[in-house]
């Protein structure tokens, strides 16, 4: 069971931080005129989508987590995520470094031994944020993952539809999507 929880945490972080990429790969497009100060604050992971076979197998047992985003000293972001693991609340802090273009970030993963990227593709700052990552895990293994963040624990149908349409535009199907249920603890105030 511990291995399952480590894999789930890895998937959550990949959803937030993106799949491993080589430095030569370009980052995805970002929200035009991205304003990092408006992006800060509390978010809930409301939806995930991936072409990973592990994700498709485990998506029915995944649940929402809370992430608080704050500025870091280097102009990047600190992400403090709280989630349910082994019936207990856990918190992890990740630091994203700016990647030159506002809304694009890099994370050096000691766990994966690789560089991860994340792009804030679209946000209205008050309701939702859509993050997308792509990369390769090995020869011929193309990974794509998207995360839908919500400012509230309840996701509007229009945002589910927006997320679903975005996923389909990336070549994924509805079977690649999960809208995450709220756990009974860890994300409440």
UniProtKB/TrEMBL annotation:
It is found in: Cytoplasm, Perinuclear region; Golgi apparatus; Nucleus membrane; Rough endoplasmic reticulum. Gene3D superfamilies: 2.40.128.20. GO terms for cellular component: extracellular space; Golgi apparatus; nuclear membrane; perinuclear region of cytoplasm; rough endoplasmic reticulum. InterPro entries: Calycin, Lipocalin, Lipocalin_CS, Lipocln_cytosolic_FA-bd_dom. CDD domains: lipocalin_L-PGDS. Residues 1-18 form the signal peptide. It catalyses: prostaglandin H2 = prostaglandin D2. One of its GO terms (molecular function) is fatty acid binding. Transmembrane segments: none annotated. The keyword Secreted applies. The keyword Signal applies. Residues 41-182 form the Lipocalin/cytosolic fatty-acid binding domain. Belongs to the calycin superfamily. Lipocalin family. Monomer. This is Prostaglandin-H2 D-isomerase.
